[in-house]
Amino acid sequence: DVKVTQSSRYLVKRTGEKVFLECVQDMDHENMFWYRQDPGLGLRLIYFSYDVKMKEKGDIPEGYSVSREKKERFSLILESASTNQTSMYLCASQVGTGGGGNTEAFFGQGTRLTVV
Amino acid sequence: GQNIDQPTEMTATEGAIVQINCTYQTSGFNGLFWYQQHAGEAPTFLSYNVLDGLEEKGRFSSFLSRSKGYSYLLLKELQMKDSASYLCAVGHNTDKLIFGTGTRLQVFP
């Protein structure tokens, strides 16, 4: 079974802190994604990566950065956490298709981040 | 840009059939996904359509019309456990995966 593991289920951080959310997948997938999920807004794509050291902005990248130094790990960084970044963060991984087709994405269990 | 629309909430009765619609406008379309998400849990994959037509998988079926930018998820013989959010997502030829806001389905006895 594909396993996507997020480092924390719940996290509480203070405004202005630098926050790292980690995601690890064990299926050698090329693509990895970070979403945030808020009531009434659905899943919104923050960043995705299609290969090591490669990244693309999603729809809401402001206030976030990402790092993919190894294929299995994709980190989301909140440079200076703010209260409007309180949310559920979901990581997903997917076999890369090179644009030739699309495959199922597998999700981690999510990290509920509260910024106080 | 892209735009994905689906109803916010739907209700249905146990044993009934429900159809959840999704319309989209996007460039570089490369398939449409449906995911199920129970409260407090991660989304799980239900179906994928890249060609026009109906794909059937047990009690769930998914339909796609690329020319109309339209898909639906059909759930038959509804069960209480089908109460969940159903997320429509569009795949792109860049491998980007964009979700709609989701439809919360409540099934009543």
- Quaternary structure of the protein: heterodimer
What does the largest sheet of chain B look like?
6 strands, mixed
- Helix-strand pattern of chain B, N to C? EEEEEEEEEEE
Mean pLDDT score of chain A: 93
Please report the total strand number of chain B as a whole number. 11
Question: How would you characterize the largest beta sheet of chain A?
Answer: 7 strands, mixed
Q: Could you say which overall geometry of chain B the principal axes of the C-alpha atoms support?
A: globular
Tally the helices of chain B: what do you get? 0
Total helical segments of chain A: 0
Name the overall outline of chain A.
globular
Mind explaining what this structure looks like?
The complex is a heterodimer of chains A (116) and B (109). Chain A is mostly beta strands. Helix content of chain A is 0%, strand content 56%. In chain A, strands 2, 4, 5, 6, 9, 10 and 11 form a 7-stranded mixed beta sheet that branches. The N and C termini of chain A lie far apart (37 Å). The relative contact order of chain A is 0.33. Chain B is an all-beta fold and 109 residues long. At the A-B interface, strand 4, strand 5, strand 9 and strand 10 of A face strand 4, strand 5, strand 9 and strand 10 of B.
